[in-house]
Amino acid sequence: MTLRTAIVTGGSKGIGFSISKKFLQAGWRVLSCARTASDELKSLQAENPSIKFHTMDVQKRDDHTKAIEEALTWSGSFNTYINCAGFSQWKKLEDYDDLFLNRIFDTNIKGVIWGCQAAAVHLSNEGTIINISSLAGKRGSAQNGAYCASKFAVNGITQSLAKELGPKNIRVNAVCPVYVKTPSVLEALEDDISPAQGKNVDCYLEEFTHQQTALKRLPTGEEVGSTCVFLASSEASAITGQCINVDCGVLPQ
Question: Which CATH number covers residue 31?
Answer without folding.
Answer: 3.40.50.720
